[in-house]
Specification:
Layout (H helix, E strand, L loop, with lengths): L2 E5 L2 E3 L5 E8 L8 E6 L6 E6 L5 E3 L7 E6 L4 E6 L8 E6 L11 E5 L2
Parallel strand pairs: 2-10
Antiparallel strand pairs: 1-3, 3-8, 4-5, 4-9, 5-6, 7-8, 9-10
Length: 114
């Protein structure tokens, strides 16, 4: 059974940082690409970042240079380091494991506000 669990969200001021974690079980993690997405009310879920099994990374333009995705295969965990956060980054962040599958976590709320 596949389980995907995100954590690390919270309230942060503009310019601040957060690190999200996504622990996945029930998949062959080391050969799986992993993705982060986000969603705000009334909008479709949008792609944020991807890391391949060979550690190649891809980002949506709005987060390039501010967000960094990484993975620890020994812990079956993928991370999203978010720096210089902006109010428009406010969303529920979801992990897709493996990327392109129908397996998602429950999401973690990130709120960027004064």
């Amino acid at each position: 059974q596949v389980q995907v669990v995100e954590s690390g969200g919270g309230l942060v001021q503009p310019g601040g940082s957060l690190r999200l974690s996504c622990a996945a079980s029930g998949i062959v993690f080391s050969i799986s690409a992993m993705g982060w997405y986000r969603q705000t009310p009334g909008k479709e879920r949008e792609f944020v970042a991807l890391i391949s099994s060979t550690f190649r990374t891809t980002y949506t333009d709005s987060v390039k240079g501010r967000f960094f995705i990484s993975r620890d295969n020994a812990k079956n965990t993928v991370y999203l380091e978010m720096n210089n956060l902006r109010p428009e980054d406010t969303a529920v962040y979801y992990c897709n494991a493996p990327h392109g599958s129908n397996w998602w976590g429950q999401g973690t709320q990130v709120t960027v506000s004064l």
